[in-house]
Design a protein that fits this description.
This protein is an alpha+beta fold. It is built from 13 helices and 43 strands. Helix content is about 15%, strand content about 35%. It is globular.
Length: about 725
């Protein structure tokens, strides 16, 4: 049974949203100061309580706040039903005053808590890492209701730890730590770290790929899983019975196995399943990874899918521990291949395919019983959740509206999910598996939607290059009047194998552009996910072909269907592949008045030789550029070939720590624009990666972007456009 539960997200009737009479416009200041969930939400063993970290940034105080809450799920009001057990803040400026320090007089304020983990129903653990020594301590607090003890240390690691999990059944605490190959204790790694600090030089030497990944250079350390046994001491508090032990260090001959995904315990707490690649020189050009199972008493892990293929993910034990469900891609070099559901029998080592003909790509699996799985997946602009019958492969949607994020079992029929929409920030809800009923658990930002107006999204659909349906979303400005003319913000997603889903985002939030007075449209062109694997694959060796044509065809149909959009005031914006598309548009069209390129691609060839995940361009352009046949593909789709046609004013944004599309791609774009006299601006971040994540940097990003597209899309264009050169985005104070 499927139920629509969009109203659960709302705190005002739809008419109030439509009229916009009860709220002011949404601003970048609102966005960067929202309360946000950070990391994993921990569910108590009985399923009666949860624990989570909430973060918040203050523009006025320039501080980042982090608070750990415990909340009973049966509380009538989430604010009354939760209690803060740790409260930390720090100066978020790049160079804070030297006097900055934590408040040592208040026990709650001494700890920047992360990774909450329940040890019992009355005992919550969390991790706090010393910023100077990098030692990580697991603390515990005891209590119930409104009364919780001061934090007490359970265990201290000499090196940072992550993915902390605990099995109440076995009493095993498990975590991931970065260790040097060949070491046997965490102390050995800490000692080698100290030796490293004594080096006089800073050289790093490599003889294999990859050299760096995402935003960090690869180090000799490997992320490996460690365990230790906890037991109650004479005072009743849980303490370690032994030193942490690495349970996967002997998996490969040279030990170089690195856990690449979060791991899971078996129901009895005696085994751990995780995902890893095998050691080898092909890390950078193969996606192949395996699901491994390790005994908590051992030192080596065994793959359950040794035949390999593409990437593996999301292992999940059945309730009796006899089977493991997981996701498997088939192609060994294609990161956007369809995830296929597999179920492995531990007893007879056999594997079956489940719902093999389902033309969607699930992203996470859970067990809902002995014969049923739960899967999250993207479908037609929504992140949905469905039941999957193992025997028949029948798919039964449970949640179809808006977007489900993470999901955890609370009981046989109930899940805890994160849930959001374009006009509703992420919160926690409970969801009935059998009936689809949804109930709110948290309301982290009650003012959004009450005192702050958020535009609801409207589905739009046009006909693309090959006659395929091109789906997207349209958001209107506050106080929309169809008799008026509005500028357009045409937003192009990255990936390119991703999608615009009806979900909340702290980056590229479509409501920001709508609130600034732009009709905002975002389309899912060829290459997007959620419309079948053939549609996702259609972008291969077509980067500037089918997607570009479908975007332009969709724009033509959009303007014809919505005459309130001013065809003379169009702006296009995109990041990553969207940034590539911005450069491509600049070389092939002059219909836009302003462009914004965030971390885009300038040259397909230079990108190949500077990026880290070589399997991506080798799949997209059907080979490496040193192969003559593939070289033709790279050159055909390189924006650099068309810079002589660039005429549209462009804001270029790039960051130093972006190793996916390196900063020279942005600098090259800016150089090509300004050398030819095209109006342009470069926004550069020395401390961000492919994404702009720091709140103050995000605020500046939004100010620069909105200034740029506002400046070049004025209501009246003078002969010498001098007025547009000084026009700025201004937040309206009220509707």
């Amino acid at each position: 049974m499927t139920r629509l539960f969009g109203d659960a997200l709302r705190s005002l009737p739809a008419a109030a949203y439509a009229l916009g009479t009860l709220a002011r416009p949404f601003t970048p200041e609102d966005l960067v100061q929202t309360n946000r969930l950070s990391g994993h939400v921990a569910v108590s063993p009985s399923g009666a309580s949860i624990a989570y970290v909430q973060t918040h940034y203050s523009i006025e105080k320039k501080r980042q706040y982090s608070q750990l809450f415990v909340q009973a799920l049966d509380a009538r009001d989430h604010l009354d039903g939760r209690v803060m057990v740790a409260d930390f803040s720090k100066d978020s400026r790049p160079n804070p005053p030297l006097s900055e320090s934590a408040d040592e007089t208040d026990a709650k304020k001494r700890f920047e808590a992360s990774q909450p983990v329940w040890l019992t129903d009355e005992c919550l653990g969390f991790v706090a890492t010393n910023a100077k020594t990098r030692q990580a301590t697991v603390y515990s607090v005891h209590g119930s209701g409104k009364h919780w003890s001061k934090p007490q240390a359970v265990f201290t690691s000499p090196v940072p730890i992550s993915d902390v999990q605990y099995s109440p059944v076995s009493g095993i605490l498990a975590f991931t730590a970065g260790v040097y190959n060949g070491t046997t204790t965490l102390k050995e790694t800490a000692d080698l770290d100290l030796e490293e600090q004594e080096r006089a030089d800073t050289a790093q030497v490599y003889d294999e790929l990859w050299v760096r990944h995402w935003d960090s250079f690869v180090t000799p350390k490997l992320a490996q899983i460690h365990v230790l046994q906890l037991a109650a001491g004479s005072d009743g508090l849980l303490k370690p019975k032994n030193e942490p032990r690495n349970i996967i260090k002997d998996t490969a001959g040279d030990g170089r196995v690195e856990a690449s995904d979060s791991f899971v315990f078996s129901p009895d707490g005696r085994q751990i399943a995780f995902v890893a690649k095998r050691p080898g020189s092909d890390y950078a050009w193969r996606t192949t990874s395996y699901v491994y199972v390790a005994d908590v008493d051992g030192t080596a892990a065994t793959p359950i899918n040794p035949e390999g293929g593409g990437a593996s993910s999301s292992p999940a034990f059945s309730s009796d521990g006899s089977r493991i469900a997981y996701l498997q891609m088939a192609a060994p070099t294609y990161e956007a291949d369809r995830n296929q559901i597999k179920v492995f029998s531990i007893e007879d080592k056999s594997t079956i395919d489940v719902a093999a003909d389902w033309d969607r790509s699930p992203s996470e699996l859970l067990w809902a019983g002995d014969s049923t799985l739960l899967a999250t997946y993207t479908d037609y602009g929504r992140n949905k959740l469905a039941k999957v019958d193992i025997a028949s492969g029948t798919i039964t949607p449970v949640a179809e509206e808006h977007s489900v994020g993470s999901a955890q079992r609370l009981s046989d029929d109930k899940l805890l999910i994160s849930y959001s929409a374009f006009d509703s920030p992420t919160d926690l809800y409970t969801l009935s598996i059998d009936h689809g009923d949804i109930s709110r658990v948290t309301q982290l930002n009650p003012e959004l939607g009450s005192s702050v107006f958020l535009s609801p999204a409207e589905d739009v659909e046009f006909v693309g290059t090959d006659g395929d349906a091109i789906h997207g979303f349209l958001l209107r400005p506050p106080n929309f009047d169809p008799a008026k003319k509005y500028p357009l913000a045409y937003v192009i997603h990255g990936g390119p194998q991703s999608s615009f889903a009806d979900s909340w985002s702290t980056r590229w939030n479509l409501n920001i552009f709508a609130a600034a007075g732009f009709v905002t449209v975002a389309m899912d062109f060829e290459g997007s996910t959620g419309y079948g694997q053939n549609f996702t694959d259609a972008i291969r060796n077509q980067w500037g072909g089918k997607p570009y044509r479908s975007l332009m065809l969709s724009l033509d149909q959009l303007l014809a269907a919505h005459p309130y959009i001013d065809s003379e005031r169009l702006a296009a914006l995109g990041a990553s592949y969207g940034g590539y598309q911005i450069n491509w548009i600049n070389g092939h069209s002059t219909r836009f008045k302003a462009l914004v390129n965030h971390d885009g691609m300038f040259s397909t060839i230079s990108t190949y030789y500077s990026t880290e995940e070589l399997y991506f361009p080798e799949t997209e352009f059907e080979g490496a550029p040193f192969d003559p046949k593939a070289r033709e593909n790279y050159e055909r789709w390189s924006p650099e070939r068309y810079v002589q046609n660039w005429k549209t004013p462009t804001l270029v944004i790039h960051s130093e720590r972006d190793y996916r599309l390196v900063v020279s791609e942005g600098l090259s774009t800016f150089t090509a624009l300004r050398r030819q006299g095209v109006p342009a601006k470069l926004l550069y971040y020395p401390d961000e990666n492919h994404w702009v994540l720091k709140p103050a940097n995000s605020l500046r990003w939004h100010q620069e972007v909105l200034d740029w597209i506002t400046r070049w899309t004025p209501e009246e264009q003078t002969a010498d456009d001098s007025s547009s050169n000084t026009r700025k985005f201004v937040v309206q104070n009220e509707l």
